[in-house]
Amino acid sequence: MQKNRWKTRLGIAVMIVMLAAVTGCNGNGSGKVTVKTPPIREANAKVELKRIDRQDDSYGLAWLSDTEIISTKSPLWKESELYAHSLIKEKDPDRRLGVENAITVNPSPLRTHLFVSNRMEASFVNMKDGIKTPLDINDGTYSILNGDVRGAWLGEEGYVLAVTYGLGIAELDGRITPILKMNGRQFPVKVESAPDKSIPDGYLVYFIDQAHSLYKLRVVTGTQSLPMSKGEPELIRQHVADFSVSPDGNHLALSVETGDNNNTLTLMQRDAPLKETIVAEGRLARQMSWSPDGSKLAYSLFNLERGSSGLYVMDTKSGYMTLVSLYPNLKSLLVWSPDSNLLMMSQENPEMNLTTENTKLMTEIYRFK
């Protein structure tokens, strides 16, 4: 991995953009975002960028640990082999994980298993012994998997995923139990989950459909019976372009369509859905990602008219934010390390070379103090 040191011109550009994009600059590269009443007010809480590490010819997909990432060396459309790359033993060769044909990789919270899939197949990989368990996603003729939707873990024992009929829960033995059947004109386009502390083995499954409506569905897992839903989905918000739920389930970050070519990034409390806090505005706001400890929120913003396009990280207690990249990657996932100190963003064609034959890959890892 090559260390990308800040150049003089880039440093000047960052300062100019930040002065134009934020108010109340405090002189160290952080400023107060347009949050009026953040969830918690804490003096002097801010996000400070330590450095950026860059890895060329590789696309990072997930974290195996705080010092190791899962990556592929080919464009995602090729559904290629997966490797483990060490961030502390950079001269060591990448380790093959024995997984091929993957475009989605999602480790369980404790990293005991991986969920891996492409557009037609999915499986669980046991990280202790490397054994793969295919998911039963064939209806006898066709795959029922909606491979364009990532899905989410329910603890260490189950995984909620999008299928052709709606939502199902996959168990580690490969079985899938339907929990929500949707009509033919409605289907999920993004799914996330959070613990539901009100019931044992309970989880809150959030999803947005193709009509940009955000729903919440209560589900129950457990070893004594099959997973099941509790009631019907509850409509939370309409006109939602993107969303992310905090790890504790208490807050939602929403990108709300508030006009033609305008998104408003807001924070919503789970128990007060009518009360929203404005974070930022732009033509597009995407890829919100909470750190595992809930202390930071990363998001990408595209807003050339106001000179504030880029990748931002906000301290969720104070509302202070830091611009960490001028490139608003609106498609790549923003993935936090388990300790919440590193943020990974990967790109295809970072130099805007859009020809398939010359596809270039790059992974950047942002280290925070």
What does this structure look like?
4% of the residues lie in helices and 49% in strands. It has 369 residues and is mostly beta strands. It has a single domain, classed as 7 Propeller (Methylamine Dehydrogenase, Chain H), CATH 2.130.10. The strands form 7 sheets. Strands 1-3-30-29-28 form a 5-stranded antiparallel beta sheet, with no helix packed on it. A hairpin with a 2-residue loop joins strand 4 (59-65) and strand 5 (68-72). The longest helix is centred in the first third of the chain and has 14 residues, at 8-21.
Low-pLDDT sequence parts = 1-43
Would you count the extended β strands for me?
A: 30
- The shape is globular
Instruction: Report the CATH C-level class.
Output: Mainly Beta
Main beta sheet:
5 strands, antiparallel
Number of separate structural domains: 1
Sheet with most strands: strand arrangement: 1-3-30-29-28
- Tell me the structural class: mainly beta
Multimer state: single chain
Q: Tally the helices: what do you get?
A: 1
- What's the CATH topology label? Methylamine Dehydrogenase, Chain H
Helix amount, in percent?
under 10%
N→C terminal distance: 20 Å
Question: Based on the structure given, which CATH architecture is correct?
Answer: 7 Propeller
Strand content: over 45%
Radius of gyration: 20 Å
Q: What's the CATH H-level homologous superfamily?
A: YVTN repeat-like/Quinoprotein amine dehydrogenase
Average pLDDT taken over every residue? 82
